[in-house]
From TrEMBL:
The gene is dsdA. Its EC number is 4.3.1.18. One of its GO terms (molecular function) is D-serine ammonia-lyase activity. Keywords: Lyase, Pyridoxal phosphate. This is Probable D-serine dehydratase. The keyword Lyase applies. The modification N6-(pyridoxal phosphate)lysine is found at K119. GO terms for biological process: D-serine catabolic process; isoleucine biosynthetic process. Residues 76-395 form the Tryptophan synthase beta chain-like PALP domain. Its cofactor is pyridoxal 5'-phosphate. Belongs to the serine/threonine dehydratase family. DsdA subfamily. It catalyses: D-serine = pyruvate + NH4(+).
Length: 447
């Protein structure tokens, strides 16, 4: 029994669960999506919140440019390139066996400075906001100051009285760990069993306390939360419930809008934008999708992508039970090579906010991710970690399958697919050590 319902009852009510249990690649279209203006009006998070977050990141830019020289070329703004991938598009076209309408692009969060993954958005933002609050409360910082002063020893002294804790499958730990340690905080990163050894080693080399668990992400988060509750000077970055993380991710949409404009790519109802976002607990892809809906309204069509072994957001959204159920409740093992997506229970905070906005979600196998990994390396010379390839199946799912075609018809955009832009959100990879990347690549070639 799961929440007082037998498995048969669950499957009868939500037939999609049967596919998820059988680890079949699944496409789910969201019947709860409503007109965007209405969804925005009802949302507890607003455009003002996102702009506030964006302004905060601007205040910190001079500090970041100073302490992370790799960000100085962009004046301390942590942003990633949006690139065309024509050879990959041609290879996908060959594989799908159909013409690909519109243009496929790659959003290279894999190459975000400081921590090489989408977590450099939300994770770093939350730590900066926390530091700003402490510094202002102490009377040592004003909003008008040049934030370069935060690099001074007296601020490190101040922050060293506080600690930051987080539970993570790896990449969030990297972001929070690197940023917090740089500011002078004590840091505790609670790592799930999925976390790669090199991520733990790198954090320890920066003076971060890494606590390891034999269990999955949910336990690492629970233990981290417990530790932090005992200590009033400890801030817990709550990946399952944090509004600040969410806002840090949402700022990406403001930046993407500018990038598209700079490339003269029009997005409106006759030039639809499709975005495919790899999803773990939901904060990263949820925040980005939310921001994109604020920016582009009905013209943006956002889809989550998950491993067949960890379809927590698909399960949570399709049933509406969000974090009340986990994939393990249904006998799905949450074991995937896509460590950034190895989450068995979705965030209900994100699920409920994103429910009226999101177009749908789909699952794909680990083999498919490895395959795309090798293909993208061969075609474009771009190297990503397995999680970051989940979005690569989006085009095929939306433009070629029956579910996708029905979606396009219902949205009345069939005639505009030639002028569509498809963005595959490449969420991580730049920090993967070369020898491990080689293993990934070889695996992809073997498939
Ligand atoms: C964390 C992560 C995601 C998903 O973000 P969530 O906030 O967990 O949904 C996707 N890809 C990579 C590489 C990640 O590290």
């Amino acid at each position: 029994m799961i929440l007082n319902k037998s498995l048969n009852q669950w499957i009868k009510e939500y037939p999609l669960i049967n596919n998820l249990i059988n680890l079949k690649e699944t496409i789910w279209i969201n019947p709860k999506k409503i007109p965007c203006e209405e969804a925005i009006k009802n949302s507890p998070i607003t455009i003002e919140d996102v702009i506030d977050a964006s302004n905060r990141l601007e205040r910190f830019a001079p500090y970041l440019a100073l302490v992370f020289p790799e960000t100085s070329a962009m004046n301390g703004i942590i942003e990633s390139p949006l690139v065309e991938i024509p050879k990959m598009q041609a290879a996908l076209r060959k594989e799908i066996g159909k013409d690909i309408k519109g243009k496929i692009m790659l959003k290279c969060d894999s190459h975000l400075p400081i921590s090489g993954s989408i977590k450099a958005r939300g994770g770093i933002y939350e730590v900066l906001k926390h530091a700003e609050t402490i510094a202002i409360d102490s009377g040592m910082l004003n909003l008008q100051d040049n934030y370069e002063i935060l690099a001074e020893e007296r601020f490190k002294q101040l922050f060293s009285r506080y600690s930051v804790a987080v539970g993570s499958t790896g990449n969030l730990g990297l972001s929070i760990g690197i940023m917090s340690a740089k500011l002078g905080f004590k840091v505790y990163v609670h790592m799930s069993a999925d976390a790669r050894q090199w991520k733990k080693d790198m954090l320890r080399s920066k003076g971060v306390n890494v606590i390891e668990y034999d269990d999955d992400y949910s336990l690492a988060v629970t233990e981290g939360r417990k530790q932090a509750e005992k200590d009033p000077y400890c801030h817990f970055v709550d990946d399952e419930n944090s509004k600040d993380l969410f806002l840090g991710y949402a700022v990406a949409a403001l930046r993407l809008k500018k990038q598209l404009e700079e490339k003269n790519i029009v997005i409106d109802n006759e030039h639809p934008l499709f975005v495919y976002l790899p999803c773990g607990v939901g904060g990263g892809p949820g925040g980005v999708a939310f921001g994109l809906k604020l920016m582009f309204k009905e013209a943006a069509h956002c889809f989550f992508a998950e491993p067949t072994h960890s379809p927590c957001m698909t399960l949570g959204l399709a049933t509406g039970y969000h974090d009340k159920i986990s994939v393990q409740d249904f006998g799905i093992d949450n074991k995937t090579a896509a460590d950034g997506l190895a989450v068995g229970r979705a965030s209900s905070f994100v699920g409920k906010i994103i429910e009226p906005f999101i177009s749908g979600s789909y699952t794909l196998t680990d083999e498919k991710m490895y395959h795309y990994l090798a293909m993208l390396t061969d075609e474009e010379g771009i190297k990503l970690e397995p999680s970051a390839l989940a979005g690569m199946k989006g085009y095929e799912n939306i433009a070629v399958t029956d579910e996708g075609k029905l979606y396009i018809e219902n949205e009345n955009i069939k005639d505009y697919m030639d002028s569509a832009t498809h963005i595959v959100w490449a969420t991580g990879g730049n920090m993967v050590p070369e020898e491990i990347m080689k293993e990934y690549y070889d695996k992809g070639k073997d498939i």
